[in-house]
Design brief:
Elements (H helix, E strand, L loop, with lengths): L1 H37 L3 H17 L5 H16 L4 H21 L4 H17 L1 H22 L4 H17 L5 H19 L12 H13 L2
Helix pairs in contact: 1-2, 2-3, 3-4, 3-5, 4-5, 5-6, 5-7, 6-7, 7-8, 8-9
InterPro entries: TPR-like_helical_dom_sf
Protein name: Tetratricopeptide repeat protein
Length: about 220
């Protein structure tokens, strides 16, 4: 009887330790995600990326720290004025991290959308020489993200941006892109209105949506 009581107490203790660890993880991640959302400089973004790396070192089986670290490096790639070499360096690190995240969570629409975002960054860094090769790959990646979850507003707005840019380049109608942007906006508002139990899930993309919807509304 005493052995069973000891076993029960040990199980309860393990459960409490796991719960405390999860709560600490969620608290740390939530804090860093909030900082990432407010980051205004490359230095801010680098600090966030480093913080996510530290969290991932403690929780190696969690995909969110890798995801947000990749997102931070993607933002750095778009933000830097250091030229093509600097941009490619940030995007290469973003790609490495998002690939690791995909290894922990396969078939994840958010991760696939971020992969597409990284590819968009690489493409935009040198569109004249990379457009022919990378355009189709980027579009396919974003289409796959949307197929994995048709209600993912980030997948749709990134896809809409690609469609919009391609249509403008070839002088074609932007109607398809604008419909995607409007759907993305509606889905983003629905997502925001939900009572979300997991605050770690991605919620970025509002500014992209507003910019493209505005461009569509002001188009002649």
């Amino acid at each position: 009887m005493k052995k069973y009581l000891i076993l029960i107490l040990l199980l309860i203790l393990i459960s409490l330790v796991i719960k405390a660890s999860n709560e600490t993880y969620i608290q740390a991640m939530s804090s860093e995600i909030a900082r990432l959302e407010k980051a205004a400089t490359i230095e801010d973004l680098q600090r966030c990326a480093n913080a996510f790396a530290r969290i991932q070192g403690i929780h190696p089986n969690e995909w969110h720290p890798l995801y947000y670290s990749s997102l931070a490096y993607t933002y750095m790639g778009f933000m830097t004025n250091g030229g093509l070499e600097a941009k490619d360096k940030y995007f290469a690190e973003a790609k490495r991290l998002v690939d690791r995240a995909a290894g922990l969570s396969s078939g994840n629409s958010e991760i696939m959308a971020l992969k597409g975002f990284v590819l968009m960054g690489e493409l935009s860094a040198d569109p004249q020489s990379r457009g022919a090769d990378m355009g189709a790959i980027t579009l396919q990646t974003l289409e796959k993200a949307a197929a994995l979850n048709p209600n993912n507003p980030r997948a749709l707005i990134l896809l809409a941006q690609m469609e919009y840019g391609t249509s403008q380049f070839f002088g074609q109608s932007t109607e398809k892109a604008c419909k995607l942007a409007k759907t993305s906006s509606e889905l983003f508002n629905q997502e925001k209105a939900k009572n979300r139990n997991n605050m770690l899930e991605p919620r970025w993309g509002k500014e992209m949506i507003e910019q493209l919807v505005g461009a569509c509304e002001n188009a002649p």
